[in-house]
């Protein structure tokens, strides 16, 4: 098999792996109570964490969460499927703006 065939196989596997991340993602982080009030499952400490939206350059999937200022560890809160989800994330944690990382 030539090097071009191997390159095609490697690219195909990479693309499938990127899509697989979105397929098997587990919902976590927030819920809505019976009275319509948003609840959060992940705590946020503004002194130790910063709000971040991570956007995949491969699939375009966006995930909102918090990044540790100390070691860069990212804690996922929710998958953002629509702009309304981003507004909901900001509302849940009383945020004015959130930076996006790629």
Task: Describe, in plain words, how this protein is organized in 3D.
This protein has 102 residues and is α+β, with helices and mostly antiparallel strands. It has 2 helices and 6 strands. It has a 4-stranded mixed sheet. β3 and β4 form a beta hairpin. The protein is elongated, with a radius of gyration of 17 Å.
Strand content: 25-35%
Backbone shape: elongated
Number of DSSP helical runs: 2
Poorly predicted spans? 23-38
Average pLDDT reading: 79
Major pleated sheet: 4 strands, mixed
The count of strands amounts to 6
How do the strands and helices of this protein lay out in sequence?
Blueprint (H helix, E strand, L loop, with lengths): L2 H21 L6 E3 L5 E3 L8 E7 L6 E7 L5 E7 L2 H10 L6 E3 L1
Question: What distinguishing features does this structure have?
Answer:
single chain, 102 residues, alpha+beta, four-stranded mixed sheet, two-stranded antiparallel ribbon, 2 helices, 29% strand, elongated
Brief overview:
This protein is α+β, with helices and mostly antiparallel strands and 102 residues long. The protein contains two helices and six strands; from the N terminus they run H-E-E-E-E-E-H-E. Strand 4 and strand 5 form a beta hairpin.
